[in-house]
Design brief:
about 140 residues, 4 strands, 3 helices, elongated, alpha+beta
């Protein structure tokens, strides 16, 4: 099942695409900026829908378990609620988006590191060429 939610997350309008299958939830977040109208939303999905679905499919999955069928003891429920407030666990879609963001951060860090290394190699090569040219001119 695929769900698209659009909501206001101050100061921007944000869309969240969730894919739920086999008890797993994968989510991807995208920012609209100003409030999208229905035609703008339709056009956006026609233009970027496939890429969003691929991005969501490649996002790390999060377990989307349903809550227990039995009703817990009221004292236990209060204890669990206070613990949940202290730890501030997020929803499954927020967890999926957090995992996807972390993986993108890791990829970007690896790309930056490779770029720095390539830049250093280039500088070394230029310096080596200049040194050889200076020796030839003597």
């Amino acid at each position: 099942m695929v769900i698209l939610s659009v909501f206001f997350d101050s100061p921007f309008w944000v869309g969240v695409l969730e894919i739920q299958e086999n008890g797993e939830l994968r989510a991807v977040r995208f920012v609209f900026g100003s409030e999208p109208t229905d035609p703008e939303l339709y056009e956006f999905l026609m233009r970027n829908g496939v890429a969003l679905l691929e991005r969501a499919a490649s996002a790390p999955p999060v377990s989307a378990k349903a809550s227990a069928d039995r009703r817990p003891n009221p004292k236990r429920a209060a204890k669990l609620a206070s613990r949940a407030v202290r730890t501030m666990r997020s929803t499954a879609s927020q967890e999926a988006m957090r995992l996807e963001l972390e993986s993108r951060k890791r990829e970007a860090a690896a790309d930056r590191k490779a770029g720095r290394k390539a830049d250093e190699e280039h500088r070394r090569e230029v310096a080596r060429r200049k040194r050889i040219e200076r020796k030839r001119d003597r």
